Each structure stands twice: as C-alpha cells, then as structure tokens.
From TrEMBL, chain B:
<keyword id="KW-0804">Transcription</keyword>
<dbReference type="Pfam" id="PF04542">
    <property type="entry name" value="Sigma70_r2"/>
</dbReference>
<dbReference type="Pfam" id="PF20239">
    <property type="entry name" value="DUF6596"/>
</dbReference>
<dbReference type="InterPro" id="IPR014284">
    <property type="entry name" value="RNA_pol_sigma-70_dom"/>
</dbReference>
<dbReference type="GO" id="GO:0016987">
    <property type="term" value="F:sigma factor activity"/>
</dbReference>
<dbReference type="GO" id="GO:0003677">
    <property type="term" value="F:DNA binding"/>
</dbReference>
<keyword id="KW-0731">Sigma factor</keyword>
<dbReference type="InterPro" id="IPR036388">
    <property type="entry name" value="WH-like_DNA-bd_sf"/>
</dbReference>
<dbReference type="GO" id="GO:0006352">
    <property type="term" value="P:DNA-templated transcription initiation"/>
</dbReference>
<protein>
    <submittedName>
        <fullName>RNA polymerase sigma factor (Sigma-70 family)</fullName>
    </submittedName>
</protein>
<keyword id="KW-0805">Transcription regulation</keyword>
<feature type="domain" description="RNA polymerase sigma factor 70 region 4 type 2">
    <location>
        <begin position="110"/>
        <end position="161"/>
    </location>
</feature>
<feature type="compositionally biased region" description="Basic and acidic residues">
    <location>
        <begin position="74"/>
        <end position="83"/>
    </location>
</feature>
<feature type="domain" description="RNA polymerase sigma-70 region 2">
    <location>
        <begin position="10"/>
        <end position="76"/>
    </location>
</feature>
<dbReference type="InterPro" id="IPR046531">
    <property type="entry name" value="DUF6596"/>
</dbReference>
<feature type="domain" description="DUF6596">
    <location>
        <begin position="179"/>
        <end position="279"/>
    </location>
</feature>
<dbReference type="InterPro" id="IPR007627">
    <property type="entry name" value="RNA_pol_sigma70_r2"/>
</dbReference>
Length: 118, 417
C-alpha cells in the first residue's frame, strides 16, 4: 500500500502549468498501473478541512473537526464506505473499537471525478 | 461480453412489462424481481448469438416463470402450493394480459420502488433494476461502489418493501401525490448522477442520463397531464442538451457562459422547450417546470450576452417562492448580479451567511468568488476561489476553481498564500 502525504496548500503554490503537469504525471502512472494489472484501488482525499476525527475520551467516542496532526500515531489501515450522509460515516467511525484504546479514526471524503458546470 | 444496443434497448423496455405481469400473477415482488433479472441475463447471453425470438416478451416470461418455480421448489416445504399453481399457469400471456395495462405496470413499479420505507439510494438502485432492467453490476459500476455493496442494497430494499407490506398496485389516493413526488425525485437523482460525471472513465455514468430520460418518458406517457412530470422531462432534455459543451479536454469543467453553444443538442433543446412552453399554459407552475423554463431561457440565447437575465431573475424569484432553499438563493444572486450588478448579488449572498444548510458548502464560496471577480476585487475573489477549491469533493471542480484563482494571481506574484 502506498500512502501519500503532502504539505497543506502546496497545490496552490504551483503555477497552472506545473499543476497540469502534476495531474498528467499522476494520470500516466495510474494508466500504467491499470494496464499492468498492479492497481488494486486508490483515491485522492478531500482537503483536510473537510475532516472529522473521532477520538476516545474517557472510553467514549468524541467527534472533533479537522484531522489529527501529531505524528506519533501511524496510519494503520482504512475502510472505505459509501454512506448517505457524513453523520452516518461518523457514526460508523465512532463504533470502531480502536477508538476506545486511544486510536483515532479520521473521516475524510474521497474526491470524485464528477462535478457541476458552476 | 457486450450486449448489442438494440438487444439492450429491447430488454430494458420489456423488463417492467415482464415483471409487472409476473407480480400480478404470483405476488411476491422480491422473488419475481430476482427471476426477471435471471431471465434478462439469460437473454443478454443468448439473443445476440442466436437471434431475438419471435415473441421476446413471451420468451422472457417463460424463462422467468421457470426460474420462479425452481426457486419455489427449492423452498419445498413452504412453497409447495405456490409451485403447483405457478407450474399450471400458461407461460404465454393470455389475451387479457396483453393489453395497454403494461404502461400502468411501469407506473405501479415506479411507485413501489420509490416506497417511503426506503432510503433514496435504495430507491435509486431498485428503480434502475426493476424498472430500468439494469443488472446489479451495471448499477454498481455507475455509482462507483463494489458490486457486493449494490447487491446488498437491492436485496435489503426488497426485504424492506416486503416488511412494509407493500402490495403491487396503485398507492392509496391520499398517498399518490407524495409517491409521485418521490418518483420524480429519484429520476432526478439518477439523471444528476449521470450528468455531473464529466468525462473519461465515467462513460458508464453518462448512460444514466439516458436511462433517466427514458424512465421520465415512460412516466410522461401515462401522465401527460401532470405539469411536474412534463417539467422534469423538459428539464432533463434541456440540461442534457449541453452535455457535449460542458467539459473540455482532460475533463476540465466549462462554465455555462464560456460553453461553445454550437455543441448544444438542438433537437433536445427543441423538444424540451416545446414541452415546457406547452405545460406552462395549462399547469400551475411547480419547481421542475420553473427550472426547465430557466434552462429554456438559457438555451434560446445564441450567445451568452444575449441571455434574457431579467426573465431568469424573475423565474428564480418564482422558484424561491415555490421551493425556497439556499441553492436557489445562490442562483438568484447570480441572476441578480447580471441584472443589477455584482454588488447587488453579493448583498443577496450575505443573507446566506450563518445558514447552517450552507455551512462549509463550496458553492457559496464559488459564487461569491465569481461575483467578486466581476466586481474587480481580485484579491478577495482569489481567496474565495481557494476557499471553494478546498471545500469541493469534485476533482474537475477543484481544478476549475484553482485555475480561476491562479488566473487572478498571475498579475500579482506576491499574492501567494
């Protein structure tokens, strides 16, 4: 599994051309992996500001805005769900047993390939 | 294997007819629906190679009935009696069944699939399967979820309908209007799911717009005198007409005012415009009709600068009165800015600040950015575009918003955040 970490706001610092190149390179890698059959799955995640974090406080789940930004925890795995609302996703995250033992579950929207024409 | 379009169209048209006949004979919507799915799959495999049988509907009925009896036989103890009854039934439709009642069956099925006990996503899944004749795999692909997830959704939806005791037949008169509204909403959801998919790997989802239009036509046929059914069909046609123009190479979204209008589908525009122009003469206006009317006004302008903005503003005000919601206010602000200038639009947007329904919604920031840009406030516009880019979960939208922000930053290299 490849986990991609980047600096907040780095995309905004790039020029239009650099951004276009970046997306082009990503597309090339994804095409290559699809064709070689190595691609299992993956998704870009939405901005961290769209994140909720569920954390155990006194053995009970508490929901906070934003991601958990300390580095002492490691990314231990992920579950992808397709829910009607964000509340439902947070509810599932709140039931995750790791939370009781000091673990964190970050709830983040996955980017889509669709959009309205504005 | 790919089913040829002609066979696929035929199967989709026959699916609700065969299911309707089967459920009328045997009841048990869930078991009948499974049996019809299997019959459709068998046909999709055999017909392209062996040719379409002379009586395709009878063929599907025979195969589905056989599957149904097999299924019932395997549940022997409980199902003996039903299996005996089913086996005695002639597979060919009797003369009394081969009547225009098929149209009513489609309507009845739509009402059943949009049962209030189901969540919207289950209503959508069941409608596409039972009325649209799509396989679970096709629906799953269109909604970008694993097939097992979609199968579970369909099966739970059928259990819920069973548990709710829903019968095959028209809903009671006092529930009919509400149920029809749910059906229209589900068809609109299906349409939007297909329409918002921009390009590239999502061609499957563009098929959803075609399916939504087909189902809206199927609903319009028995209900030509319902203004909102007509309005929804017109709205879909007028919106779909813009599809070829709304995304550039690489899936980048093209806003309405920058689209190449020669790419708009003239036939769809004509049909949609005629439908809505006619409907508004005899029906009290409803939200779908007003939205269709707005789309028709956009469509009649050969160039963006020819757009009749005062008329669009008036229509948004009607819509805000009929179905007030913050998204309508956003669009009204755009129209107001075109008529009275950007600061009037920005004033109207301010009424949405603190509206919890809009909290963190990127569309508010995107519209504000657009109006600030028109007003000439580049730094504020850039910030608002970036806010909007951070708030969207759509990749093409994020790229569009980032490029708008970047365009404004070009003249101001020190302005990077």
């Amino acid at each position: 599994m490849l986990m991609i970490y980047n600096r907040p706001g780095f995309l905004e610092e790039l020029t239009e051309q650099e951004r276009t190149e970046l997306f082009g390179e990503v597309e090339a890698i994804m095409t290559e992996l699809s064709e070689s059959g190595e691609l299992v799955g993956g998704a870009a995640l939405a901005d961290p500001s769209l994140t909720k974090t569920v954390v155990g406080r006194d053995g009970r789940p508490a929901v906070t805005d934003g991601p958990f930004l300390e580095a002492k925890e490691h990314f231990a795995g992920y579950v992808s769900v397709d829910c009607e609302t964000e509340e439902r996703a947070v509810e599932i995250a709140s039931r995750w047993p790791d939370v009781k033992y000091g673990g964190y579950v970050e709830v983040r929207a996955v980017m889509q390939d669709s959009g309205t024409e504005m | 294997m790919r089913t040829p379009p002609a066979v696929e169209d035929l199967l989709r048209a026959l699916a609700p007819q065969v299911l309707g006949t089967l459920v009328r004979r045997h009841g048990a919507f869930d078991a009948c629906e499974d049996a019809v799915q299997e019959a459709l799959l068998a046909a999709a495999v055999q017909w392209p190679g062996e040719g379409v049988p002379e009586n395709p509907r009878g063929w599907l009925l025979t195969v589905a009935t056989r599957r149904l009896t097999d299924q019932w036989r395997s549940e022997r103890a409980r199902r003996d009696r039903e299996a005996a009854v089913a086996a005695e039934e002639p597979a060919e439709p009797g003369p009394e069944e081969d009547r225009p009642g098929d149209r009513d069956d489609t309507l009845t099925l739509l009402f059943l699939c949009c049962h209030p006990a189901l969540s919207p996503s289950s209503q959508v899944a069941l409608t596409l399967r039972a009325v649209g004749g799509l396989t679970t795999a096709q629906i799953a692909r269109a909604f970008l979820v694993p097939e097992a997830t979609m199968a579970q959704r369909v099966s739970r939806a059928k259990q819920k309908i069973k548990a709710a005791g829903a019968r095959f037949g028209s809903p009671p008169p006092d529930e009919r209007d509400e149920r029809l509204r749910a059906v229209l909403h589900v068809l609109y959801l299906i349409f939007n799911e297909g329409y918002t998919a921009s390009s590239g790997p999502d061609l499957q989802r563009a098929d959803l717009t075609a399916e939504a239009i087909r189902l809206a036509r199927a609903l319009h046929r028995p209900l030509p005198g319902d203004g909102e059914v007509t309005g929804l069909l017109a709205l879909m046609l007028l919106t779909d007409a813009r599809r070829a123009a709304r995304a550039a190479d690489g899936g980048l979204l093209v806003p309405l005012t920058e689209q190449d209008r020669t790419l708009w589908d003239a036939e769809e525009i004509q049909e949609g415009t005629e439908l809505i122009t006619d409907a508004l003469t005899w029906s009290p206006p409803g939200p779908y009709q007003v939205q269709a009317a707005i789309a028709a006004v956009h469509a009649e302008a050969a160039r963006p600068q020819d757009t009749d903005w005062p008329q669009i503003l008036a229509l948004y005000r009607v819509l805000a009165h009929l179905a007030p919601n913050p998204m309508v206010t956003l669009n009204e602000a755009v129209a107001l800015a075109m008529v009275d200038g950007p600061s009037a639009g920005l004033d109207l947007l301010r009424t949405l600040d603190g509206d919890t329904r809009m909290e963190g919604h990127h569309r508010l920031a995107a519209v504000r950015a657009h109006l600030l840009e028109t007003a000439g406030d580049a730094p504020a516009a850039r910030e608002a575009y970036r806010d909007a880019a951070r708030g969207t979960t759509s990749l093409p939208e994020r790229r569009y918003l980032e490029s708008r922000a970047a365009r404004l930053a070009d003249g101001d290299p020190g302005g990077k955040v």
